[in-house]
Design goal:
The structure holds two protein chains of two kinds. Chain A is mainly beta. In chain A, 14% of the residues lie in helices and 55% in strands. Chain A has helices spanning 2-25, 187-191; strands at 38-47, 54-65, 68-78, 85-86, 89-108, 112-131, 140-158, 163-172, 194-202. Chain B is an alpha/beta fold. The chains are: A mainly beta, B alpha/beta. The interface between A and B is large, with 57 and 50 residues.
Amino acid sequence: MKLKKITFLFLSFMAYTNSFAQNNTSKIAEKKSTVRQLTIEPGIGIHTNFGTDLILSNQIQWNPNRYLSLASYTSFNINNPFQRDFNGIKTNYDYSINQKIGIGTTFYAKKSSHTFLLMAGVKYSSFKETIDDPNFNKVSASINSFSPDYGLMYSLKKGLGKYFFTYRMYVPLYPWPIKGSDSNYLDGNLNNITLEVGIGINIK
Amino acid sequence: MKMKNNTKLIKKFYTTASAIILVFMLGSCTKEEFNPASMEEFSLYSLADGTSYFIKVAIPENYNPINEKYATIYALDGEENFDFVANKCKEISNKLAVSNVLVVSIGYGKDRSIDYTPTKVSSKTGGGPQFLNFIETQLIPKMEQDYSANTTRKSRVILGHSYGGLFGAYAFSVKNEIFGNYILLSPSLWFDNLVTFQMEKGNRENNKSRKQLVFMGIGEGENSGRMQAPFEAFYQTLRDNYPDIKLDKNRVKNLDHLGSKNPNIVKGLNYYFQNR
């Protein structure tokens, strides 16, 4: 049910943004104000796991021409920063670092542009938990792991000047379908959709 | 001319994007199904909690109830896990050339969070004792009477994930005489301030001399701040206090709570079939 709902919302969102982009493309095709060749877009965001993760990110986007977009995305995620003690279990640290590159295309509207990218890269995760309760032995478990990370990125840039508003949504696909193709493998993905906002800087 | 090219590009993009989304959706819909011809179903009313449970039983190939007695795997969250577990049991037993088991799927009664939790911390928890009583006094006797299930403790397995894993750990701790084998996947041992640890400790003297097999599995990506440390602590408790235990654990690389379930079911079943 949750999967269906999120898929529906995602598709609705895609359909809306796509039709918006398509409607406006012809009207402002020759306007150059929203066409940017190189941008830096620092942002801040959350995951869709009820907003319990904090994300600091940056995307560098290079458009060699109007419809080809290349991007590099880096983020530092502080996971569960507001819940470090639970039922006598302490989270000592919990973070992840992502680095991805992507290729896609951009559509231009009157005062905004819409970029769709296929991204791929690597994610490093590190966390440690300890049972910290006087009634039990102190036992810790720590995980340090690298994993692939690929998915779909939507990036909105709104504004005409050197500085502009940015919004990004990243839908991770890994581990689907490499590790498995049933809905169990998508649960984590639905919790880890990234929503970010920030201020972009037009370099070129 | 330029507009025409743009339109072509846009069309190509939408075609590609639609194909990706379609593959994504179709792929996410795949679910393994067990052959219905090898399966029986019935409902069983629980005298302990006044709820009916929908039970499915996977019958092994060449089932011979007159001459053979079968080990039994009781799979919790049966509506989710039955097909996968039953298919894997068939595959693994064929691969190892050993006798297959009866797989018993226990469907949902009132609510899984009621049935699988040992203590009451809210209106949606605390039905574990009644549910275990139902399994012990009604379901197991029915399986032994109607399906040629082996009546010994060592031939009974309980398999559960998440709250189901918690329930398995609870059964291990308080009614160790029922099951001889436990496949505990991503168990929610954090529940009620680690109450299962207290139960295990309280019954350890009675349980530690019994032979048992325990497989514990979890996903490496389970970083909710409550899963990993209790998992490790329970593993160490069993390792250090139960001399006659066959014990193994597995952390599935890069997968989270639900994603790690099926890989750990496969690992757990392999461990069971190879070490029972």
